[in-house]
Amino acid sequence: MPPEDASNxxxxxxxxTAHAVDLAAWLAxxxxxxxxxxxxxxxxxxxxxxFSYLSLDVQAALARRLGRRxxxxxxxxxxxxxxxxLFNHLKPEEQQRLLRDLAQExxxxxxxxxxxxxxxxxxIMTSDYATLATxxxxxxxxxxxxxxxxxxxxxxxxxxxxxxxxxxxxxxLVELILAGTDTLIAEIMDPDPMAVTLDTDQExxxxxxxxxxxxxxxxxxxxGRLVGIITRDDAEDVMQRETTEDxxxxxxxxxxxxxxxxxxxxxxxxxxxFWLALLVFGNLFSGAGIAFFEETILAYVALVFxxxxxIDSGGNAGSQAATLMVRALATGDAALKDWRDLILRxxxxxxxLGATMALIVSPIGLLRGGSDIALVVSLTMMLVVxxxxxxxxxxxxxxxxLRLDPATASAPLITTISDVVxxxxxxxxxxxxxxx
Amino acid sequence: MPPEDASNxxxxxxxxTAHAVDLAAWLAxxxxxxxxxxxxxxxxxxxxxxFSYLSLDVQAALARRLGRRxxxxxxxxxxxxxxxxLFNHLKPEEQQRLLRDLAQExxxxxxxxxxxxxxxxxxIMTSDYATLATxxxxxxxxxxxxxxxxxxxxxxxxxxxxxxxxxxxxxxLVELILAGTDTLIAEIMDPDPMAVTLDTDQExxxxxxxxxxxxxxxxxxxxGRLVGIITRDDAEDVMQRETTEDxxxxxxxxxxxxxxxxxxxxxxxxxxxFWLALLVFGNLFSGAGIAFFEETILAYVALVFxxxxxIDSGGNAGSQAATLMVRALATGDAALKDWRDLILRxxxxxxxLGATMALIVSPIGLLRGGSDIALVVSLTMMLVVxxxxxxxxxxxxxxxxLRLDPATASAPLITTISDVVxxxxxxxxxxxxxxx
Lengths: 436, 436
Description:
The structure is a homodimer of 436-residue chains. In chain A, the strands form two sheets. In chain A, strands 1-2-3 form a three-stranded mixed sheet. Chain A has a three-stranded mixed sheet with strand order 4-5-6. The first copy, chain A, has helices spanning 8-17, 20-29, 32-41, 46-53, 56-65, 68-77, 80-89, 92-101, 104-113, 121-124, 138-148, 173-178, 185-188, 202-211, 232-250, 265-292, 294-299, 302-305, 307-331, 339-401, 411-434, and strands at residues 129-132, 154-161, 167-172, 196-197, 216-220, 226-231. The first copy, chain A, contains 21 helices and six strands. The model of chain A has no long low-confidence stretch (mean pLDDT 90). Chain A is mainly α. Chain A folds into three domains: 8-115, MgtE N-terminal fold, CATH 1.25.60.10; 124-240, CBS-domain (Roll); 265-434, SLC41 divalent cation transporters, integral membrane domain (Tetracycline Repressor, domain 2, Orthogonal Bundle). Chain A is elongated. In chain A, strand 4, helix 14 and strand 5 (216-220) form a beta-alpha-beta unit. Chains A and B meet through helix 11, helix 12, helix 15, helix 16 and helix 17 of A and helix 11, helix 12, helix 15, helix 16 and helix 17 of B. Chains A, B: Belongs to the SLC41A transporter family. Chains A, B: It is found in: Cell membrane; Membrane. Chains A, B: Residues 125-187, 189-245 form the CBS domain. Chains A, B: Acts as a magnesium transporter. Chains A, B: Keywords: CBS domain, Cell membrane, Magnesium, Membrane, Metal-binding, Transmembrane, Transmembrane helix, Transport.
């Protein structure tokens, strides 16, 4: 990217030669009037491609600045799925205006693609795919692709349809090339191609594409007719977004889709305050536990010394278990059916962790408060680590079982639960061992 | 996958028709003697493909059970990069035995590919790529690909080399098909293909492939000679592994590569105890702070009620900021150079969060301890949320600056730091407002 004080010459060279991704990244940092000027100066089809790489917020902002014809031209040249994403991001009156400015074909395509529910296969598919018929020869098929290729998102895999547009096979470009020119498509196609339906969850789509290493995945309607394909790069974007959401959730941030640099301060405030405030009420239970044992605390004030250490350790062990589980469930490394095995195993690991932590903390207990306090602190440490770990390991499974997102088992939530349990264990043990 | 009590017929059907990925997943769950039997019964090349999809631990275990000739046959048919991964996972004496059993070509290929440092482009590249010369026509080029295709990992992009094997261009299969048959490769190739060197970090490779949506990325040596390519699916595996590592790190688990179901109990224990134990010493500072203010605590024991709430809130706000930053740095949403902007913005957001939290907690303070305690608690809440957030936002930048992994700024680490600061703020304010 050119530096801020680059000469006009340097900028011109960059604009002409840079990859559209890099060009878009640079435009996103410019003031909007300059970005608009640069976009309009680009040659087609570089213009539409660069525009597509901008974030939807920036695309929408620029769409509002561009002339109606300028916008319609860019939108017409965008890929079908990118076009719909922008359309869905505009206000209703802007959508209507844009539709009026487009040719019938694009208009109908947008109308169709924009009707599907968010986060489904229908919402992320594109209509730019190549189709063949069983009766074509490999040679004829290659001719078809040669004609249509520049407009299609991928021709590495083509789809074979019957007269009713039902999906009956797929062929890889490699196979067309390897086949003799007279070989019929019917002979070389895969007659049982993997496909998803319009309402398949986008995360499931992304997982299939990654698992089976697919170039694209066809989408069929309830009659088995091909209605779109999902390309690998779009599936990867979905996967990346879902992973970012998991990071946000395990840190008790309500998911947001903008990049952290583009998200406004008030957006970030709102996404963060909800759980922070909610957990206050969880912590009041810890406070109530402490209030209940005030006599014990006054009698043995040295106990307070160990309070942050004990409750944090339980929370930390729990966060470890929860985060490992959340990730394993997201990648498919573990499934709901594994819960019994994994929790039993966690019990062994947590006992070992708890015993080690008890050993570490016992000499400190001895030094600070004598043998009785050391006993209370060590026992509590052992128990909070075990309880924290088990809660951390179980909660993602439980949420998943209830069809909620396991990533809601965030580190702060586990910590708060462990705190309450930890306070109760600590002061109960103290009261019964040290006397009230 | 067939159920555990499936009939032989069902199993036979599954083994014959399932995708190699699914077959491998099923084999991994079988006892090793049965898995070995099933693997040996498979036809080539399905055998090698299925074997490649097993985890390296399972591959190595099976390799030890198979006969020398059986193993050599499978290994010969594996893709070059998978072959080397298995080789690197074997014990030295097993490596020597395997090398002796292979033909010269595979032996040399393994020797060459296994020499590169872990986590570099050299370590994840494959030698199965197609090459062309500038003087070939598009027609000749397609003939070359037709001959070589079945053995190459991808022919969607071929690489153009000069007489010294220096990389001077690349051509996409689509372009070969679109070009007239007599067009020379020199005319249609991209004369400036993106490439990385042998020592490029694998994460950088994965980021380039994702950013520029590449099918494969060539690797060149110090003389500009092509030595391998990295395919998209391998880059995605790298990305997925690195993301899993980030999850592990932000939960203070030392990264491990096995799936959570395959990792042994003692492995998990070792990966988790390190930070748990280390943070004990961090928490001793909180304890020391508390010990220092023991007089104040004895005079106002109601203060202990709010202790878990206050230190947790600072830790939670800090974990939010840290986790958002770690992810943004990993995806490239934010870079080191953005630190000043982002930290200034965080100051505003954290002040708003702190003020809200102070408002929420003040009536509780009033109820539990009167107006003075309410003042101390509210002020402390405000400050710990601000300090926690700023530490959480800055630490990933600082680590990144020091060329350490920003993901080391784990939630538990931030919580421990916030705790120490929180204890000191809380009791200092209490002592000065309530009197010692």
